[in-house]
Design goal:
Mean pLDDT: 77
Strand content: 25-35%
Low-confidence stretches: 1-22
Distance between the termini: 58 Å
Number of strands: 6
Radius of gyration: 25 Å
Strand order of the largest sheet: 1-6-5-4-2-3
Shape: elongated
């Protein structure tokens, strides 16, 4: 039986490409206050990305707000209310933030922050030897088979893992009612990372807290 090695390699490549194009976020843990009572009529959430990177803060808050709205919850982004960047001089005090939260009629506060960032180097080997499916062929066939493997050396790459935490507080009591941690593996861009994180976190919050 002849083995169509080229077709096999192509199939594996398609599977790997599909995996790379899939969601890069996954929930690693979540917690719900055991005293929390489901079914509360939450209507508006105040969203805060705790980072001093202005662009990241805006992109993450925009993604979280869009996902909250898609789940039927009104959203207010902190960068629409306070200065876009959090520095030691511009970060609002807790009193100032809570005053604005209550003024805007928000009954929930959603914060998200980077918990851990890891970089790991690994070696990706080049093409592996596989039995040639047609010994006895002429040189042309033999050469054409092995030619692609000659210029396919291994290489080193760096994998990036980001652990994020999302937390929900009730505005009235300032009590933490829910928290989740997610892990992202080699995100392609800040925009895709933020969109996927927002969807994973918000959908998990709605499910865990039975907010709908």
């Amino acid at each position: 039986m002849r083995i169509h090695i080229h077709r096999l390699v192509a199939s594996v490549a398609v599977v790997m490409l599909a995996a790379q194009c899939g969601p890069s976020q996954r929930v690693t843990s979540s917690w719900t206050d055991p005293n929390y009572r489901s079914g509360k009529p939450y209507k508006k959430v105040f969203i805060v990305a705790l980072t001093n990177r202005q662009n990241a803060r805006m992109v993450i808050e925009d993604a979280l707000a869009a996902t909250a709205v898609a789940q039927g919850i009104q959203a207010v982004k902190s960068h629409d209310v306070f200065k876009p960047s959090f520095t030691q001089e511009t970060t609002p005090s807790r009193e100032a933030m809570m005053a604005k939260v209550k003024e805007l009629g928000c009954d929930l506060i959603f914060t998200t922050t980077l918990v851990e960032r890891r970089s790991e180097a690994r070696y990706v080997p080049g093409s592996v030897y596989a039995p040639f499916p047609g010994y006895g062929y002429r040189f042309r066939g033999y050469y054409n088979y092995w030619y692609p493997f000659i210029y396919d050396p291994g290489y080193y790459t760096t994998d990036r893992r980001y652990s994020m935490e999302g937390t929900l507080f009730e505005a009235d009591s300032e009590s933490m009612i829910w928290s989740v941690q997610t892990e992202s593996y080699n995100p392609e861009s800040l925009e895709r990372f933020s969109t996927e994180m927002a969807q994973v976190m918000m959908e998990r919050a709605v499910r865990d807290l039975r907010m709908r």
